[in-house]
């Protein structure tokens, strides 16, 4: 009989691009976000950061080759999340792109001409076994989040969370009612009051978010408030951070 522990993959996450500097001085910090997802059928790069040279530099320092990436999941059309893609396609043109269908046609055309295979996302759908898109979540800018299914629950990766982090979590919960074992990415809370941020963190608890790894545009005050609430279940993100989760 199959052991339930063997059903879910061991997912390895590596933050390749973030504005929070690493203690490892070889790595470059820069405004933007990218996270490599390994351990599934496909190696998925979640967003690309702003500058391809910095993305490739950090990858090389961390021992990753661009050829290891099968596809890129683009959360939303902001250059601090998509700007590295052109350079990446120069060194690995055989990428699948999972991107919101709302991206401008001129970008889609240019990436196709560079060799990429585009998979345009509108509604929730599977990326590969154990990986899913939330589909486009409406906001002042359309955004998709990546959901990974592991034994301990779901992992949710967000780019900037422009449609609001609580709305994204609610959308995930509609199709994946299990606890969120890890919430990682930019939450875009810099403009919120302390009171509002505390309310959002309480919502994380209500929605069974078990561990939180705020990155990129979350805002320093929000990061510290999350650290206070989540204690050992808070993960401080800087470029190069590696997380393994099953
Ligand atoms: Fe961003
Ligand atoms: Fe953004």
List keywords for this structure.
alpha/beta, 7-stranded mixed beta sheet, 246 residues, single chain, Metallo-beta-lactamase, Chain A, 25% strand
Describe the protein in words.
This protein has helices at 52-61, 79-82, 85-91, 105-114, 165-175, 194-206, 220-230; strands at 11-17, 34-38, 44-46, 71-73, 96-100, 117-121, 125-128, 131-133, 146-150, 153-158, 180-186, 212-215, 242-245. 46% of the residues are buried. It is 27% helix and 25% strand. The model is unreliable at 1-5 (pLDDT under 50). It has 246 residues and is of the alpha/beta class. Strand 5, helix 4 (105-114) and strand 6 (117-121) form a beta-alpha-beta unit. It contains seven helices and 13 strands. One fe (ii) ion binds at residues 33, 78, 80-81, 160, 186, 216-217.
State Rg.
17 Å
The total domain count is 1
| Uncertain residue ranges | 1-5
Biggest sheet strand line-up: 6-5-4-3-2-1-13
Query: What average pLDDT do the residues reach?
Result: 96
CATH class: Alpha Beta
End-to-end C-alpha gap: 20 Å
Strand content of the residues, in percent?
Answer: 15-25%
- The share of residues in helices is 25-40%
- Helix and strand sequence: EEEHEHHEHEEEEEHEHEHE
Broad shape:
globular
Bound molecules: fe (ii) ion
The CATH topology assignment is: Metallo-beta-lactamase, Chain A
Q: Quick one: CATH superfamily?
A: Ribonuclease Z/Hydroxyacylglutathione hydrolase-like
* CATH architecture descriptor name: 4-Layer Sandwich
Specify the biggest β-sheet: 7 strands, mixed
Total DSSP helices: 7
Q: How many β-strands, per DSSP?
A: 13
Structural class: alpha/beta
């Amino acid at each position: 009989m199959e052991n339930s522990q063997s059903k879910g993959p061991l997912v390895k996450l590596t933050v390749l691009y973030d504005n929070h500097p690493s203690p490892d001085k070889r790595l470059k910090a820069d405004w933007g976000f990218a996270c490599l997802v390994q351990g599934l059928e496909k190696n998925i790069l979640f967003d690309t950061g702003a500058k391809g040279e910095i993305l490739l530099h950090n990858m090389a320092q961390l021992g990753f080759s661009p050829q290891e990436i099968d596809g890129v999941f683009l959360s939303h059309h902001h250059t601090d999340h998509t700007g590295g893609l052109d350079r990446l396609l120069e060194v690995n043109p055989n990428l699948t792109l999972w991107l919101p269908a709302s991206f401008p046609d001129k970008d889609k055309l240019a990436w196709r001409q560079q060799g990429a295979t585009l998979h345009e996302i509108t509604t929730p759908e599977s990326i590969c076994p154990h990986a899913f898109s939330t589909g486009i979540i409406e906001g002042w800018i359309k955004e998709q989040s990546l959901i990974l299914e592991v034994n301990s629950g779901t992992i949710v990766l967000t780019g900037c969370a422009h449609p609001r982090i609580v709305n994204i979590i609610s959308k995930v919960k509609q199709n994946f009612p299990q606890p969120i074992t890890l919430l990682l990415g930019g939450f875009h809370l810099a403009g919120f009051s302390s009171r509002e941020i505390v309310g959002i963190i309480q919502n994380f608890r209500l929605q069974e978010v078990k561990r939180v790894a705020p990155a990129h545009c979350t805002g320093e005050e929000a990061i510290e408030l999350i650290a206070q609430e989540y204690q050992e279940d808070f993960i401080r993100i800087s470029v190069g951070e590696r997380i393994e989760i099953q």
